């Protein structure tokens, strides 16, 4: 491992002058801001009760929120960093009225990382996946406990990490504890560390976040009133739709509309820049649409397109059922708990390796199923509509974990870890 870190840092020494030159040419670029960020600007309120929490992007930031709240309850000061601009801005927005200090994640050079650990930090907590050699190596050198929380592992990545372990280059050996996002992830991580007791599955932080953020019955009723969508109108939701999935969704909806001409599809693209592609798809199938920003739909509107930021979780509450995207393409799926929290039936495609345990739990409790094409999707939605309209509908999904306790369990373990 020592040879690996030496070679890694030689690479930084060679590339750094070029990186500095590039940052001067792209002065307003996000990465140039990270390059110029001075860790010394962090207020020196940090003391021995300070914990550094790092999240890659917006999704990881949201997952971290319940854990940060629990750590604060235990009396810790929090320094919170994010790598991407969306994650940084989201963290600043959420924590702006709290004592959490939100900072950029510095570039992983040895001179930057040494500055991080010049602060009296009790522990380093990394959320999900964003691991950097110097960040971990120097924490280990200075005997700062390192925790990987909500850790995920893709099958392809596991093969690469297994090879690194055989070459004595595994970064996972540096973690004091790893809290996987699922039992399936736990199996991978136990293969990648020498001491398997360092891997402990407590549950998925995303479950906690969703349960704390879900909209109430009264908020959903108000949303229906504002949009002019009565409870008797059949509605289904297609969330986090990736490129290649919108065609499948629209083809299914066209068939559904032929049998339920008043039904409404609420569709949320994974990225807002893909809204125009969904509009084109609606037009090609002859489906009338409205944008969420218009705040109203008519009885003749076939599709409501979410062109606003951060509202998908709330809109799942409108649906009689839902399809979760990123699963009919090889992305790995998105958080199935977001629609399931409203006790509605859901479906997903075959590619849900990021949420495989969650999918199995939902399927076992008869709360959802896997679909493979537009025909399956239409059949699923029509079946749910039929049950709802015949008043035989019931909530099928019983959550397998005590939600709200996952973050608390992890925070308690971290607080009791010797440092």
Write the layout of secondary structure elements.
Blueprint lengths: L1 H24 L4 H7 L13 E6 L2 H16 L3 E6 L2 H11 L5 E4 L5 H7 L4 E7 L5 H9 L4 E6 L3 H12 L10 E4 L2 H10 L12 H9 L3 H11 L7 E7 L4 H14 L4 E6 L5 H10 L4 E3 L11 E3 L6 H5 L4 E4 L12 H4 L4 E4 L7 H9 L3 E3 L3 H16 L15 H12 L3
Parallel strand pairs: 1-2, 1-4, 2-3, 4-5, 5-6, 7-8, 7-11, 8-10, 9-10, 11-12, 12-13
Written overview of the protein:
The protein is α/β, with parallel strands linked by helices and 419 residues long. The protein contains 17 helices and 13 strands. The chain starts with a helix and ends with a helix. The protein is elongated, with a radius of gyration of 23 Å. The model has no long low-confidence stretch (mean pLDDT 89). α1 packs across α2 (30-36), α3 crosses α9 (205-213) and α11 packs parallel to α16. It has a 7-stranded parallel beta sheet. Strands 3-2-1-4-5-6 form a 6-stranded parallel beta sheet, with helices on both faces. It folds into 2 domains: 31-204 and 405-416, 3-Deoxy-D-manno-octulosonic-acid transferase, N-terminal domain (Rossmann fold); 214-389, Glycogen Phosphorylase B (Rossmann fold), CATH 3.40.50.
Indicate the proportion of strand residues: 15-25%
What is the CATH superfamily of the largest domain? 3-Deoxy-D-manno-octulosonic-acid transferase, N-terminal domain
SSE class: alpha/beta
Radius of gyration: 23 Å
The helix/strand order is HHEHEHEHEHEHEHHHEHEHEEHEHEHEHH
The number of distinct helices, counting runs of at least 4 residues, comes to 17
CATH architecture of the largest domain: 3-Layer(aba) Sandwich
What name does CATH use for the topology of the largest domain? Rossmann fold
* Cα end-to-end separation: 23 Å
Unreliable segments of 5+ consecutive residues: none
Largest sheet: 7 strands, parallel
According to DSSP, the number of beta strands is: 13
Question: What's the CATH class of the largest domain, please?
Answer: Alpha Beta
Average pLDDT, all residues: 89
Total individual domains: 2
Helix content: 40-55%
What is the approximate shape?
A: elongated
Biggest sheet strand line-up? 9-10-8-7-11-12-13
């Amino acid at each position: 491992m020592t040879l690996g870190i030496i070679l890694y840092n030689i690479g930084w020494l060679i590339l750094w002058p070029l990186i500095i030159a590039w940052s001067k040419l792209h002065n307003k670029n996000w990465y140039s801001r990270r390059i110029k960020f001075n860790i010394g600007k962090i207020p020196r309120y940090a003391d021995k009760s300070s914990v550094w929490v790092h999240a890659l992007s917006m999704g990881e930031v949201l997952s971290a929120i319940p854990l940060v709240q629990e750590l604060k309850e235990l009396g810790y000061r929090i320094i919170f960093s994010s790598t991407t601009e969306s994650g940084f801005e989201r963290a600043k927005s959420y924590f702006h009225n709290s004592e959490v200090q939100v900072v950029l994640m510095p570039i992983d050079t040895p001179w930057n990382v040494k500055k991080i650990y010049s602060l009296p930090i009790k522990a380093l907590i990394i959320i999900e996946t964003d691991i950097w050699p110097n960040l971990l190596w120097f924490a280990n050198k200075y005997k700062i406990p390192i925790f990987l929380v909500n850790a995920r592992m893709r099958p392809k990545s596991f093969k690469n990490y297994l090879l690194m372990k055989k070459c004595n280059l595994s970064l996972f050996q540096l973690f004091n504890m790893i809290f996987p996002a699922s039992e399936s992830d736990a199996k991978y991580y136990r293969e990648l560390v020498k001491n398997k007791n360092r891997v402990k599955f407590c549950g998925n932080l995303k479950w906690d976040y969703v349960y704390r953020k879900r909209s109430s019955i009264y908020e959903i009723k108000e949303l229906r009133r504002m949009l002019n969508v009565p409870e008797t109108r059949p509605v289904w939701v297609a969330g986090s739709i990736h490129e290649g999935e919108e065609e499948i969704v629209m083809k299914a909806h066209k068939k559904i509309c032929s049998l339920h001409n008043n039904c409404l599809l609420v569709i949320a693209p994974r990225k807002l820049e893909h809204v125009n592609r969904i509009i084109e798809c609606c037009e090609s199938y002859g489906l009338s649409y409205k944008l969420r920003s218009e705040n109203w739909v008519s009885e003749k509107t076939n599709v409501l397109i979410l062109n606003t930021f951060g509202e998908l979780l709330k809109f799942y509450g409108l649906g009689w059922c839902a399809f979760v995207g990123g699963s009919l393409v090889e992305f790995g799926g998105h958080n199935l708990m977001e629609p399931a929290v409203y006790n509605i039936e859901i479906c997903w495609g075959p590619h849900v390796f990021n949420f495989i345990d969650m999918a199995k739990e939902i399927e076992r409790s008869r709360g959802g199923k896997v679909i493979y094409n537009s025909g399956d999707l239409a059949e699923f939605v029509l079946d749910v509509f039929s049950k709802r309209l015949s008043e035989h509908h019931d909530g099928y999904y019983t959550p397998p974990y005590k939600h709200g306790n996952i973050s608390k369990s992890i925070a308690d373990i971290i607080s009791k870890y010797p440092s």
